[in-house]
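Aim 2, interim progress. The first record below pairs a target sequence with its structure tokens.
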Amino acid sequence: MLKNVYLSLVLPLLLIGCTQQFVGEQEPIKNEVKTVSWDTLVSTVNTGAYQSVGQQHDKTVRLVLNNGQVLQAKEPNIDDIYEVVKNCKKCANKPFLTE
């Protein structure tokens, strides 16, 4: 009986402690989209320091950086971002998404 009481008191405390440790170690998800100028977005693309880039029908271009941050801008003309990526040597083999 004492063993059951001990387990019913100690086990929940251990589980709470383990759960808090794992939750505390996780990095926050960076899902905020930051709107920047077209020139800023192009300059950032040309560094090659991003995970993926994509364009939408409304000429919105979204760039996911290596740290998870998302930048967006309106391209002047549809497919302008395609030309930027095509002419960027550091952008080889990076995902390009389009609608």
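The second target in this work package is listed in the same format:
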Amino acid sequence: MAEARPGPALARLLPAVVALALLAAHFYRAGLVPLVPTCIGAAVLLFVRVPWVRYLAIGSLLLAAAEWLRTLVDLVGERSAAGEPWLRLAVILGGVIVFTLLAALPFRSLALRRWYAGGEPPGPGAS
């Protein structure tokens, strides 16, 4: 077995780490401080190479996207009711939702399945 090279795997994990950090900042800003360590803990767990972490990552990112969608609906409703502009807010949060959902995709790849199973690290040609 080849020596483990963490670089390519870490690059595949980066979008998920960013998405979870954004969610932690969102919770902090919303005053939900007890949820911040949960998000940070989930991001740290991404670097633990056991198979169930893949499922935790996918589930966490899907829940994060749902939270962003809930926030989008709430904020657009508030702004709309107040007669304030809301389109830019909707576009930005829509982008955050798409980014969060896309961050979950690498966890379905064969490369990360192998990496979390303790096998070969994902190389440049791995899918």
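The mean pLDDT is 90. This observation will shape the mutagenesis plan for the next reporting period.
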